[in-house]
Amino acid sequence: MNGHELDRRAVEAWFRRRGLPLVVRQDRRGSALLQRAIPALVFLLTLDPLVSLLALWADRPRGELEALLANPAFVVGQLVVVAVAALVLPALVAWLVTRWRRRLDASGRRVLAIAVLVLNVPVLPVIDRAVGLRDNVWVSLTINVGATLLVLLAVYVGAGSILAWGLRHAVRQLGTVGTMATKALPLLVLVVMFAFFSTEMWQIADALPRYQLWSVVALLAGLSVLFMIATQADELREMTDRASAGGLDDLAGQLRDTPFAGLTGGEEAVAPQPLSRSERANVTVVLFVAQALQIAVLALLVFVLFVLFGALAIRESVVVSWLGEGLASGRLFGIELPVSRALVQVSIFLSVFSGLYFTASAATDPHYRKAFFDPLLAEVRTSLAVRQVYLARRAVGSYPGMRTVTDR
């Protein structure tokens, strides 16, 4: 494999890691398809027997199972076990296999991909039947074949890359908690603090059945989504139109810390490359998910803050004077919390309202925009700049005509 081929693969892998698989040329999307599907197939290979074991464990007499579920500690423990078995352990195994795959050469990766496919489709159903986890081999085989085909289709259209990028970005957003706590939370708390101490707010929130509260949450979240779509559409239209017209400012600076760092070409090498509909949709989804994760992390911070603040600052006697006797204990997703139901309801409502306020502020307020929205747009600009050079080099073959920035 020559250096140009390695460069091309590195750039295409870079696009996929950034959640932009549809930027990769269509004739390359099916390349090494089975090898790229290894993480997802290993995830399914690990998940299948774990789910079967959990199903066997839960197959108890109804009375015994109801007695166990009546114990809150047991419920919490089982939720942890299910989360580890269904998400953490398969994801960990898939990650370890992926790291191992990167150390293999091309032939080794092909052998690994074939081995995973064989284990996942014909071998696993037979093993499940032999050890008593499944009764019907053919049903298991059909399910595994269907799941494998869906995984391959998802990898081909880029869904796996977008999902993996979203998970990595979500983890990265957790690292910005400090920035949010110092730059976003203080003003947000000032805005909603008066509502938090309002008797009417507590009465309204406490009177809502939980399903109705979630309906209110969905309404406010929908408004946030509509506002995000409206503001992002204008920003993206300007950026993508400039990229399609070849309007790349400071190309060398935008290529810094990318596979094309230190390289650029003449004007002919970065000629206008109009974005296709699928590319525009891919860029839109990436920016939307990135901002949505920001808002979700902030809303979660506000919820935790108000629950802690309410538990410390508002005595039960005060809440009783607002709402009357008979305060119910708080529950969230079936888990009982050591605070009142009213406090949980109020905190949920105000956290979602804060998310809506933050959505509007991030696009309109210069302080919020500089700290939270502009960095997301900068990532998109970098991706579009790399796309221009990538397609230009693809168009002329073997990436000729490129020279270092310092040689210009």
Automatic annotation (TrEMBL):
The chain crosses the membrane at residues 37-58, 78-98, 110-127, 147-167, 211-230, 285-314, 342-360. Signal peptide: none annotated. Keywords: Membrane, Transmembrane, Transmembrane helix. This is Integral membrane protein.
